[in-house]
Design a protein that fits this description.
Elements (H helix, E strand, L loop, with lengths): L4 H64 L8 E2 H18 L3 E8 L2 H8 L1 H16 L8 E5 L2 E7 L3 H17 L10 E7 L6 H17 L5 E3 L27 H23 L3 H29 L4 H24 L4 H21 L5
Parallel strand pairs: 1-3, 5-6
Antiparallel strand pairs: 2-4, 2-5, 3-4
Helix pairs in contact: 3-4, 5-8, 7-8, 7-10, 8-9, 9-10
Length: 364
């Protein structure tokens, strides 16, 4: 059917309207895409500028950190600040004829923490342990972030025995920190007192060697560096406990720890015989107590690995000895411990009862 003039005009108008709408929509779509592309380009430029600003800020903070000598994560000194302080402390100790020691610490199995739980968990461990250690350290004992999971403590006016006691406190403080989902965290420590004329590199090398030995002996312990000064016992021979080859159990670690027990026991006896101040006597006693606890723990672990049938009885004897150590420690603190009771415990119970009867020949 042919269209009339009016119908034709309406049809043409509708067609033009449709075509125009389509063209307008297409143009609007193209214009919208251009606008979004422009906005996206501006956002990308802004993000790039922000990243550049962040990188610059990080560089500035790192520069400020180096200048301030402080590690951002832990608040500890950095290596540069420590090395600047060492020369002054050594010179002061030389003028005053005093001592200065360092403690090199390394968190045990730290790589495993990072690999298993991520670097955020590792950072939490570093910051948490640094905070716990500060509660143990004196204000004059700076904590240093030596690198990665390795820390150092510079301990002025500390002889080897005092520094070893401090190391034991740091071990305990480490064990007491709880990190959810990580389990127990421990640290190994190498301790070195500065020797007359010793260079910084040689001093650090001895401390690092002691740290390596602490790792090799089972971790979670403190070891004194080789070549460290020996504190004289000043003991009358009648009271001195003497190690003999016949006392050997047959295991190198146990025998080394037994010999160390003899040395520490003689140090405590010397403090009583010579009449050293109560603080020094207590320091030596605490060192003996800490070593005995570590020794008993190592002994029980080795007995368990060897399938030793008397392990349960042995563990009970260890607990009885540690209870006696704590009892006598109170008397040392109060200044009421008598020399006779001390000799009886060290010579009869700790040496004869434990070493010569319980341990002798176990690993032979």
């Amino acid at each position: 059917m042919a269209l009339g003039p009016i119908e034709y005009r309406w049809g043409a108008a509708l067609l033009l309207l449709a075509v125009g709408g389509g063209i307008g929509a297409w143009i609007g779509h193209r214009v919208g895409r251009v606008r979004w592309a422009a906005k996206l380009a501006r956002v990308r430029r802004a993000m790039k500028a922000l990243q550049s600003a962040n990188d610059h800020m990080g560089a500035v903070l790192e520069s400020l950190e180096r200048a301030a000598g402080t590690d951002r994560l832990t608040g500890a000194w950095n290596r540069r600040r420590c090395e600047e302080a060492v020369a002054a402390e050594v010179a002061l100790a030389r003028r005053r004829k005093g001592a200065v020691s360092i403690l090199m610490m390394d968190i045990d199995h730290f790589k495993r923490i990072n690999d298993t739980h991520g670097h955020e968990a590792g950072d939490a461990v570093l910051a948490g342990l640094a905070a716990a250690w500060r509660k143990v350290l004196r204000a004059s004992d700076p904590l240093v972030r030596w690198g990665g999971e390795e820390f150092l403590v510079l301990s002025p006016a500390s002889q080897l025995e005092g520094a070893m006691t401090l190391a034991e406190k740091l071990l305990v403080a480490t064990r007491e920190v709880t990190f959810p989902g990580l389990g127990p965290v421990t640290v190994s420590v190498g301790v070195a007192e500065h020797l007359p004329g010793e260079s910084w590199d040689a001093w650090i090398h001895r401390a690092d060697g002691a740290l390596y030995r602490a790792k090799a002996e089972g971790r979670d312990r403190a070891v004194a560096a080789e070549g460290s000064p020996v504190i004289p016992s000043h003991l009358p021979s009648i009271l001195e406990l003497t190690w003999e080859a016949a006392y050997a159990s047959g295991h190198p670690l146990i025998d080394e720890q037994h010999r160390r027990l003899f040395e520490l026991a003689n140090g405590v006896l010397a403090a009583f015989v010579v009449g050293l101040p109560r603080e020094e006597t207590l320091l030596r006693w605490n060192r003996l107590a800490a070593h005995a606890a570590q020794h008993f723990s190592d002994e029980e672990r080795l007995f368990a690995e060897a399938g030793f049938p008397g392990l349960e009885h042995h563990a009970v004897e260890h607990q009885n000895l540690l209870a006696k150590v704590r009892e006598l420690q109170t008397e040392v603190e109060q200044g009421t411990l008598e020399l006779g009771r001390l000799v009886d415990f060290l010579a009869v119970h700790l040496v004869k009862g434990h070493l010569l009867q319980e341990d002798w020949g176990t690993f032979k």
